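Example complex used in Figure S2.
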Amino acid sequence: MDLRWLWLGIALAVVVVIVVVAAVFWPRRAAKRPDAVLMAHAARLRRIPRYRALVRNRQWATAVRCLAVLFLLAGTIVLVSRPTSEEVNQETFSNRDILLCLDVSGSMTDYDEEIAQEFSRIAEDLEGERIGLAIWSEVAVTIFPLTDDYDFVVDQLDEAVESFDTYDYNFIAGVQIGRRKGSLIGDGLASCVDRFDRPDEERGRAIVLASDNDPQGKGVFTLQEAADYASDEDVVVYGFGTPEMDTLNPGGQRSFEEAVESTGGQLQVMGEGSLGGIVDGINQLESERSEKPPEVIVNDEPWWGAGLASAGVVLVLLAGIRRRS
Amino acid sequence: MTAHLTRVKTRMSIHAHRKVRGLLEGEYASLLTGRSMDFNDLRTYVRGDDVKDIDWKASARSRSLLVKRYAAVRKHTIMVAASTGRSMAAMNDIAVPKRDLAITVAGIIGYLAVKHGDQVSLAHGHADKQWLMPPAGGELNLEKRLEAIHATTRVDGPRSDLHAVLRFVARNVRRRAILLIVSDEYAVDEELATALRRLTVQHEVLFVSIGDLDPTDAPDLRHLVDIDTGDLVPEWARNDRQLHEEFVAMTRAEATGMRRRLDSLGVVHAHVHDTESAVHAVLRLLERHRHAGRR
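Predicted assembly (620 residues):
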């Protein structure tokens, strides 16, 4: 907690102390009461029990009033010093959209399972980001759209893991529409780019594109065209390639890498333990991308001062009521 | 010049009219039976009486020897010992200072004495200084003495000190007298008791104590200040019914306690708590004194 106008509080405190000291030490002259009625032996009153009771009442009331004034003064001084707290607000991870864009052609299911598992784990710790899952082979299908409902995300990812594990074709139904094409990476990427919503918001958008880059047949987009489209839309593509890429499709890894890097992302070839590193990389890159200069917010914290002053007011009321009664 | 005594007389005559005419006659008890020209009463002859005193005519009528008795013509001295410190300048009620009440009391008894042809002397004073005015008869001299009480009792005067006045009387007065003490004591402490014991040996002592203003019952309009300390009587103490009751009970208990204590010292006491009851209280005091004298 920080006292923003400390000098004003100190000035007020000094004034209060001066006034109190002056009131205490000011030479007290006996008040002249020219019209007062003089009586003798008034001290006898002190022997009366009722008088002593009244004095005690009086002392209590005075104590309560002193306390009230004390509270009011303390509260006012605290309030005048303007207690504030500074909050450094760095909006980092809160506005990212990550779309998992998985190739579900037959050769990919093991890797997909791994990726889904990994993201299911990650999703539990996320805050503010949105995750979506789309699968594609010939055409793309949205399993669930971008959402920050992490329970749902985890459920869905777990279900996906299970489906990949059991080769559940129901899960991937709809990615083949019967033209005997598959793994059309260009089309897959392009449709994934289209799955980002809120185009007018400044958000970090990333696609995790897993594929073996082995298109069977010719798609509408080539990989490079889709990558250009992604960079136009400001989407960063992180590629997961399989180790067999080059054997299936000579030059596949290279073209995949080029396409991904043209969007600002990178390609990672999957292998044992490579996933963790990739996810860190995504986090890292994404946070750098979306980091804004830290924003300092000054919040007034009037609770202490207001509380003390309110207590003072309550005591004043109590003293007043007591006096009435 | 005769202002004080006139007021006293007025007050007495009002009182007398309320009771019976001539109330004052005979209130005053001659203390001695002796030889004089004033016939007092008759009583049966006892051995040792002077034969010259036998009233033969009366004896013949009553068939027993009667002897005339005569009231002593020795002049008595009524000595007023008044405490005239500043506490006596304080108020007895909202309009009347205790000083005026003291003058009324001294005036009544002084007037009775003067009417009897006795002499009145005055010892008065406060903590700083005491004065003695010698015995003198006549209304003018009485008035002078009352005026002296009035003049020395001042709001800005020194504090009251009855002990000093009584010591002064013990030191300076050698004649036997009827000593009327007028003060505002509300209790008899050991020192006062000692002084009174000393004085009762020499004098007939009457004690009139003057009551104080009741601070719990005074109208609210003006401040109430203690004359000795200058302390203000707090506002909240002046309207409390219970406090008033307890104060009244306390003053009553004090008056009773004081009377008991003074009785045990052989001093006749009356407490005058307001103007209305002053004359009555003094007359009752004399009444009691008369009976006390005959015991």
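The mean pLDDT of chain A is 82. The first strand of chain A starts at residue 2 and ends at 3.
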